[in-house]
Write the structure tokens for this entry.
Amino acid sequence: MDSALKNSFLEKNLAALKKNFPDIYKITKKHQVIPPGKVMEASDGLLNLKYDMPSGENLLAYSLENTRRDAAIHLETIPPDSAGVAVFIGMGLGYGPIIVLKERPNLCAALIIEPSIDMFMTAMKHVDLTSILESSRVHLQVGGLDLALLERQTGREVAIMDTHILLHVPSFLWQKDLYEKTRNDAFMLLNKLNTMGSTTNYCGDIFIKNRLEALSLISSVHNTDILYNRFPGRPALLVAAGPSLDLSLPLIKKAQGKCIIIAVDSALNAIIKAGITPDFVTSLDMEDPNFEKVAAFLDQKWPFSLVTTVKCTPLIAKRFPAKHTFFAFNMDTSHIWLINLLKIKHFFPPMLSVAHISIGLALLMGADPILLVGQDLAYTSTGSDHAADAVFHEIGLPKDKEIFYTKGIDGAEIPTDRGLLSLKKQFEDIIGGSKRRFINVSARGAHIEGTEVMSLEQAIDRYMPDGLATQKIMDDIIACSKKWQPSEVISFCDKTIKRMNELSRKLKTAADMTSNGLKQIKLLMDKGCLAASMADLPSGLKAKLIKTDQLNNATDAYSDIMNQIVESTFQALKENDVRHIKNMRLKKEQGYLPWLKAELERMGWVQPIRLKAIENYMSRLEALRHRLAEEERLKKTLKTADTPGTRLKLAELYSDANDILLARDEIEKILDSGVQNPEIYAQMGFVCAGLLDFEQAKYYWNKAVSQDTASAAYIQALKLKAASPWIEAVKKQEYIARPDGSYPKWGERYPHLLAKWVNRINESAGGEDTIIHKITEELWPDYAIIIENMIEKNDMEKAGEILEAWSPVKEHLFGYAYFNSRILYANGEPVLSVKELSKDLGVLEGEPKRLAFAARLMLETSQFGKGIELLGKAVALDKNTATLWEELGDSLSSSGNHENAIVAYEQYRNAMPEKIDILRKIGDSYLALGQLEAAKNAYEILLDHKRKNSRTTIKR
């Protein structure tokens, strides 16, 4: 390479750096460069670097023979059409980023992190980096890692796109500690962003649904702002549900009454069972099955408070009878409108897990020190990944997750996974930004940076000398606090619905104009038009496109609306960005008109998605507005005339919105006044079913019908509504696919929960066969397929668990007895298997595999006539099932019944004449009977066939 050309790189690169990355330019100007090694020319004419190693080791930045090929190794990990984010940790001399940006033009962004300023300046001096420094796709960090900046720069892209992390390995060998720390810090943040993005991608619509349904409680829940600094300097014990919690329960009980106990919902089973009553329970998860963590505790009014979010499944806030319920908020673009509307002042940190709500609550209240217990963040027990009584748990190390090792609180390396590491990083970020004292008193678990490790017993002795009447303090706080006013939410709904209608009209007009414009562009292209810009287009088309562009730009004025629905369009964002990037490439390669056509197609694709999201959101807003406005109207009426009729209407309003606890309060007031009528009893039955007290539900429903038989139809509708949450739970699929790409149902993964849901459906139906039949027709067929697949894979234990979950309604299920028969047979119970199969013979018709099983079962239990009949039916449908004839022949032959064995073998041969080897068994049976001529005949036919077959396969 020419020496003068080399020397010109630094000046050229610095000019580009100063223009595009001025902050980095200032840093490099102040830095005194110490070259990392000696720059030399490689065999292919490019420059290479030999690192200065203390050991004298010969370490090169790239292969000396082929520098470019070595740098291009990154291309193997990035698909050619990837539109994701490339993250370079260590850039070497810059060849890797240069090649990737050139060869992967669809990448939406490249983040280059070079922790060594010396390495960066060496590259600046010797390699032309302007293609990197001038690229609009590149984000650059040099000399350190600014995580907040990284999140601002690439947060959205990482959240919705694939992320490719690329390491310059020789730099890691050169300065291991520097580069590994940078990698770990970057990995944790990128993983957090990716996890949050993946969750929103799959659950965005659930977030919106939950948020608006939760707002129906706005007049009865509290703002966590009122807890701000109410417990300054008092110790808070944050109870998580890691496997080590079981070891700490006796000491937690000892701490009760001496500190604020904040327990995550998944720990509730364990601590209540241990006789511990927390002061707060926190809940976060958005999917309805999360309700199971509190489902066992609906039978009494608890003295503690519930702290949850508006994204959490509404089943918890609407049914869990905590004394006080709070909504907590973190800064989130998708609900910034709600933060402003409710005038939230104090925010929780990003809540990646329910334990992050707990730590946010402790910080908000001024607690100090903050103690963590059961916060394992690792697989500290092969028996379970959670405490023994946790509703959700997995046994052993997960097979579908990548396992990492991290330092434990005792200094040893312990297994964890990517998700848990992300949660650990979030804890460390929160702790690092606080001046409070954090103590990890978990019996086992990962070490959390910024915490002091101490035993819980020591912490109790040192920090909990006095009593703390948390419940009394909470009652005093609530007594003098104001609740939110529904009127403000109603007014917001009115204004938003009006503006969404305006936006919808504009988008529809833009969509029509986009469609018309696209048709005209296609006609122009068919005619061979070579327009190079808009100026070359016909005036009418040009005006139409300008108007379309103005309409699309007009939607910018509705950015607040678009932010409210962004979660429901999150999946489309990725595809939209990918299309836009590809279209920009298309413009460079094919010109203006193909680009314009592609852009109009992109807009024509995304506009209906936005319109549908707006329509769905408006529908939910209207339902919320109706619910709150009716509540206000009825409450106002009650102030002037407190009548049972008005109060019943209020209870019915609450029931319609599944606000079970609010409905219960109103009905109890009516019943306490002595009023009795079928509607009140019917509603009370629904409330009891909602709180899983089915005996009481049955009592009230029967009482309603006994007063008025005409109420039966009304009650039937209430029963179906009561069953609806559990019907949906049985249907529910996980949003993360298994390795084979399929999405397991929740009931498949957690049969113990499926059993509860099916039982609740059955109990809610209360003998209504029409409801049971409807439910089994909708839900059972999918599970029947799941069970049959498991049986075929010989996973009888799991098949049996899922089948048993359906036992409450087994008499209504087609195939239940057949599956049970299969499982009994596999477990060595053929007689019981026959008995069970006899209940469900209709399931065999037209199913050769099932008929073959039944035939085998009958033959093995000496019911030869029935077995042969069934086997004949099976073979008629599928000749492959004739293998049973061979098995039967083998069984008969081994027992000395050679005559019948020959009959069975002949049946096999008739069904599958190509299986010529059966003649050997036929010959053997004749031989055993002393029929030598028949045996000889069978053997000769077999040998003759083999001779012929051998000749036809000789190569000539």
